[in-house]
Amino acid sequence: MFLSRKHRSNAWLLVTVALKWGVVVVWTREETPHHDTRLPQSDSLCEKLQYMSEPTMCDASKTETLLTGMYTRNVHNQDQNIKLNTAKKIPKVYIYSLPTRFNKDIETCVNYDAQPYLCLHLQNGGLGKFIYREGEMGVFYTNQFSLEVIIHNQLLQSRYRTLNPEEADIFYIPAYLGVYFFCRWSTTIEQLQNEMFDIIDAMPYFRQGKPHISTLAKIEREQAASDHPLLQNEKCRDVTYLVIEKEAYAWYRKFLGIENQRVIVVPYPSYVHLYNTKTASQSISSPGLESRQLMIFVAASDRRTNEFRNIIMDQMPHKVVDTTYEKFVEQVQAQGKDTPTQVILTTTECRPGHENITIGWMQKSVFCLQPPGDSPTRKSFYDSIQSGCIPVIFRFADQNVEYPFQRVLNYTEFIVTIDSERIERHEQIRDILEEIPKDEVHRLHQNVLKVARMLQYSVIESGDQPRSYRDALDMIMEEVQDIYNI
Fold it and tell me: Considering the entire predicted model, what is its pTM?
């Protein structure tokens, strides 16, 4: 159940991380106010936010750079310019060869052909059914719970893999035990997990305390619940799990007995996966603000999951189902009406149709709202980033929501955060977003384009071709290196 929370005033004092390619930031805690500069009032969206103009980027001292194998941190103030360099080697990952009942058989069990109601399309290495391609961007019917299959296949084809366990820095356990929840075989998760650890224990590396990682398809708390107590096994404490969401309530993690469980929060698998382009820049190619005619967009089901979400949904005056942006504009104009600038696209789970058009809508939008549903985070957050649409999240005082790679990525540089109390007071989201100066909107949009590659799982092509950018797998490996000091 979603709980109501009070305002939290903590924000972040930025500390720029200057690295070899592109842009990224880290930060330290500080009290800082939210945006409070209002724009002049106008009836025209372009006049209000002046998106048709293309202002220059902000002060170079605030320009962030993307990660490479070398970390360089720059701290800028009037009197100092400190650089800390730490070289990182490419870690070697050994993938255990487990019997197929721990992975491939589970994939077959939950795949769309076996259980269509789950809409788990797992072909193409877990990316799902191919839909269309625009330049380097591939759009696939990717399910949010496909992470175990994706990571396994990505590592199999990666530069990180070694077939020699003696030279491995990291050991990967390719068990699809999170998505096993949907199989309902007679074998319990406890039995299957014990069998898995017995196999791993037959080799010396787990007992030797070597770094071991694995992946969980569903959010953390659902992997420790009574109906799927995967994380209740004490041996899990010696494994670092890649998860799409870490439980946001510290008290509940303690209640579940997993307060000491190591996890790395990684991106939800989105619809978008990039093809390898050796000449690609760190910034993705995406429509500019002048081409984005919608100010506010939401892609969400029509389930009224909680009161807070309901308030947000009720502020969206135009609801669309299974219609492209272009068709919608045509219909509105045929009625002699102005094109709306706030739209919600109904994306009923497992109902076909919206997977073909969601990214197109986001590419026409400036801000993409991310209201919480059954849990604080959403797959749509990552769809919006890959579409160049600035995510808008909502902050609750009693939650500690962790986002991927926030050790090195400062999310305040490319998302908008609105305190929940403002929405609970029924302030209009449009009014809040119109407070943001045009230069800041442009800066946020540019930074979204710069971080997008690091928050997606690239298309697996023939062999492991060299890339000119970091993607989510590279970021994950650097997080593992940091945890284990590799």
Answer: 0.82
